[in-house]
Amino acid sequence: MKFGIVGYKGRMGNEVKLLFEEKGHEFVWGYDKDGEYFSQTPELIIDFSLPEVLEKTIEFVKNFKVPLIIGTTGLSEEQLQSLKLLSQEIPIVQSYNFSIGIQLFLKVVDLLKEYIDGWDIEIVEAHHRFKKDKPSGTAKMIKECLEKEVPISSLRLGNVPGDHILYLANLGEVLTISHRALSRRAFADGVYKSANFILNKENGFYIFEDVMFEN
Amino acid sequence: MKFGIVGYKGRMGNEVKLLFEEKGHEFVWGYDKDGEYFSQTPELIIDFSLPEVLEKTIEFVKNFKVPLIIGTTGLSEEQLQSLKLLSQEIPIVQSYNFSIGIQLFLKVVDLLKEYIDGWDIEIVEAHHRFKKDKPSGTAKMIKECLEKEVPISSLRLGNVPGDHILYLANLGEVLTISHRALSRRAFADGVYKSANFILNKENGFYIFEDVMFEN
Amino acid sequence: MKFGIVGYKGRMGNEVKLLFEEKGHEFVWGYDKDGEYFSQTPELIIDFSLPEVLEKTIEFVKNFKVPLIIGTTGLSEEQLQSLKLLSQEIPIVQSYNFSIGIQLFLKVVDLLKEYIDGWDIEIVEAHHRFKKDKPSGTAKMIKECLEKEVPISSLRLGNVPGDHILYLANLGEVLTISHRALSRRAFADGVYKSANFILNKENGFYIFEDVMFEN
Amino acid sequence: MKFGIVGYKGRMGNEVKLLFEEKGHEFVWGYDKDGEYFSQTPELIIDFSLPEVLEKTIEFVKNFKVPLIIGTTGLSEEQLQSLKLLSQEIPIVQSYNFSIGIQLFLKVVDLLKEYIDGWDIEIVEAHHRFKKDKPSGTAKMIKECLEKEVPISSLRLGNVPGDHILYLANLGEVLTISHRALSRRAFADGVYKSANFILNKENGFYIFEDVMFEN
């Protein structure tokens, strides 16, 4: 496919570009703070930039009339609304976390939660020392998915990209689900999956869970 | 409930007895190599003994007309057939592994297997140094469930009751499912779950997976 | 060797008895709340009982004139003093924790602590849900050994006998030391090691660290 | 300090450059396949390049009369000899693995090995799917350090930079040492440590173990 990226010089944009190229696809259009790069019309646009760029992204997408995958974080409620409006004209995948493994983790939690009445549950997350929030957003997602009060222990360790562990124990055994992110590559893979999902979809607003689990 | 146990003096039979009593139930009947113990008619019978005792167990169960939970290992094909025949008269739960956690593990594998095309998969199992077979039967069950050629690494370590780890990795992340048995208690819990399942069931032959996941 | 046990019917006393017998040694004398068992004079006495029994133990040991290994917990300062006095007449090993692995763990921490300036350190301990104190005494020992303020996360999980994990991380790597107790057997092994240590020792008061690391 | 790098555009050279600059030091000289960069005379030279460049490096170091830290892999026996000869004129640190954590790991193994007679030992290593050799060189170093026949299980998982786990188990407990590399940063830290070590050293040939553990 021929793809375009808003924020193609950023860390995540660049990671996505490299992965798509590795898979044999062609980077034909890009936009970054120092301007536009154009060689051909893209078949879809991926946006990993900043909330203030969204208006520009919407403009581009409308011109090209192509699907959008957007992973920009920190969008306002109005911005999400304008994306939903836009999704009447083109198919959109929006998510704050494109990790396939975390989606699978949550799916597993969703499966297990009805069988663990009376079990002890503990969540542990480990992240690099520079992370300021405690606990991590993903740990909170796991807890919400369990629909229970669950203690979360947060470890801050060197440069660890992100570990999440869920312990489930009855009196005879311990079942553990854990996820370890190795790099931004984990998220680029999820974007690639989304690209294959969105290309022939009808207009509409999709989330990454749809990409993973819908048919 | 009032329960009876064939093999109530054995290690597993005793563990079951203790757990049921802890939950407030009453041991009213037992059979072991030195004879029969009778105080009242049981509402169900649990058998953790030896294949050569099966005939006796069938006789008891027919007399009492109560459900049977049987975890005796090493039954012959004929013995399993005679249990199936018996299940036309009473409800039976039969399994070689009553661990709830392992059932959940397999359920998780079954869920995940359709999302991990192209991922690397590794199974590691650790057991006490006295275990003679390699890899463990449970590791083989996990592999079969994956329906793929998966390497299994077997560690033999001191007195470890039984660990199983499944690693799933794409290029950006590692998802891990692991199970650690602490003691025979893990299996007694599964027997207790089976007891609650079987008490009001229609005649039929059930396996532990039915107990866990059927309605 | 011919050994005696104070508290031989208790959980720990019985574990010690079984292990020593397995190693080919002979249980020749015992004392428990229902009285004394005597077949021969022991070559050493092991005490895993209660503080209120200590006076009786001292009396026995003086009569037999044999070494003492004592693992009774909760001794008062006076009781420890009377043991030290007694150690002028016979050799004594006293400890609240006879786990060989934990001693090795602490030895490792002692080695590592001078190389980890600027590293992030986290301790995690997991124990059964019935444990009331948080964090565990062993986790506190690890922290003290590090001579630093280190966060300790305590997980309460089913029936886990006792896990301790020490994470050490700089910006490029994570080094982890962990210990997992499987059963009381871990402690019985340490008592056995102490028995071999004490048999030909001069009078004196020894701790388990001496058994492990002195020549 | 003012430092120079042979191979400063390579992945490892660049990582070293970034780390030293982050610590406030100045990159004043460099050499790479497209030529020399010179702004000032360096106080020491670091070489992470290729064996065929060694002759050039020796020439530079002799001219500048400054210490050398060399991490180039695949040096021939003759090349190591010529470095030893050179070390009569300048101090040199040479190593194929500048990971501080792995050095500590080996130190720990060296400490533990005399206390684990009769224990079960297992080594597990996990690396990315592109790694061709099995087992890893580091796993072999751990095994050699133990001076015993120890089974090594090798897992090949996605993009894992490198995990090493050593399990030690007696019948009551499991002691585990594990190391997880997060990135090349782990090695750059070791180079930095070597730089501080070498600056005021006498002429001589040092290895990374000297840097870590000598006074």
Automatic annotation (TrEMBL), chains A, B, C, D:
NAD(+) binds at residues 7-12, 71-73, 95-98. The keyword Secreted does not apply. Residues 1-98 form the Dihydrodipicolinate reductase N-terminal domain. It catalyses: (S)-2,3,4,5-tetrahydrodipicolinate + NADP(+) + H2O = (2S,4S)-4-hydroxy-2,3,4,5-tetrahydrodipicolinate + NADPH + H(+); (S)-2,3,4,5-tetrahydrodipicolinate + NAD(+) + H2O = (2S,4S)-4-hydroxy-2,3,4,5-tetrahydrodipicolinate + NADH + H(+). It is found in: Cytoplasm. Pathway: Amino-acid biosynthesis; L-lysine biosynthesis via DAP pathway; (S)-tetrahydrodipicolinate from L-aspartate: step 4/4. Residues 101-212 form the Dihydrodipicolinate reductase C-terminal domain. PANTHER family: 4-HYDROXY-TETRAHYDRODIPICOLINATE REDUCTASE 1, CHLOROPLASTIC-RELATED, DIHYDRODIPICOLINATE REDUCTASE. Homotetramer. Belongs to the DapB family. This is 4-hydroxy-tetrahydrodipicolinate reductase. It comes from Defluviitoga tunisiensis.
